[in-house]
Amino acid sequence: MSGTPTIQIDNPKFLKNPPASYDCVMVLGKTYLSYALLDEAHTTAFAIRHYDFGTQTVGKSDFDTLLSERLVQKATRYFLAVDTIKQTTIPSELYQADKKHLYVQHLFEVDYGEVLHEMTVGAAYTNVFVLKKDSVQYFNHRIRNLQFFSSAAVTLSSYPAHSDDAADQTVFVGYTGDGFTISAFKQKELLFQRSFAGFQSDDILYHLANLTARYQF
């Protein structure tokens, strides 16, 4: 990994005198890697780094370099949000943890080397997402107190606050490096969410047109 971040934001006071406890929140995409060092309430950011690898896929050696940074090593807790198009969101009142494979069987295949994970999005939704088994083993070996998240679900939880109060419907498109996710809200209640592989502007317009026709937006 290049030693120079594409984006770097620091709080000078934090660099001089870090608090005894703080969290490290990381986001892992196919071709990028980001992290933020935050207070334990996640209301104040002390440092932010973003590394863009262009067309090169992020490898374990890149993550090893990140984890060797002194301030990252001294974090108390670690959170890793992974960008994956293999994910779906279910209303929590309909969700059964022991049947999570049933929610994804018609959406995508779960390969032998992959495993399903879950996370709650507020109290209303549960997100089911896929991680590679060897990646989970590597991360758990390298990082203590690690929690896994779906990047799409984390982003989803922030959308209602950015919705237009005057609009009856709001649609968000999230680009994930190897695909995109469309999330639609009706009066700030999630109406539709789905991830698609690939990234072409025509593809997004096509699925937005279908969504508009289906729900009569």
Provide a descriptive summary of the structure in words.
The protein is of the alpha+beta class and 217 residues long. The chain contains 7 helices and 12 strands. The mean pLDDT is 87.
Write out key terms for the chains shown:
alpha+beta; six-stranded mixed sheet; three-stranded antiparallel sheet; 7 helices; 12 strands; 37% strand; globular
Question: Helical region count?
Answer: 7
- With strands numbered from the N-terminus, the spatial order across the biggest sheet is 1-4-3-2-5-9
Order of helices and strands: EHEEEHHEEHEEHEHEEEH
Outline? globular
Present the secondary structure layout:
Blueprint: E1 7-10, H1 12-16, E2 23-28, E3 32-38, E4 45-52, H2 60-67, H3 70-73, E5 77-82, E6 87-91, H4 100-104, E7 114-121, E8 125-132, H5 133-142, E9 146-150, H6 151-162, E10 169-175, E11 179-186, E12 189-197, H7 201-215
Parallel strand pairs: 2-5, 5-9
Antiparallel strand pairs: 1-4, 2-3, 3-4, 6-8, 7-8, 10-11, 11-12
Short description:
This protein is α+β, with helices and mostly antiparallel strands and 217 residues long. The protein contains seven helices and twelve strands.
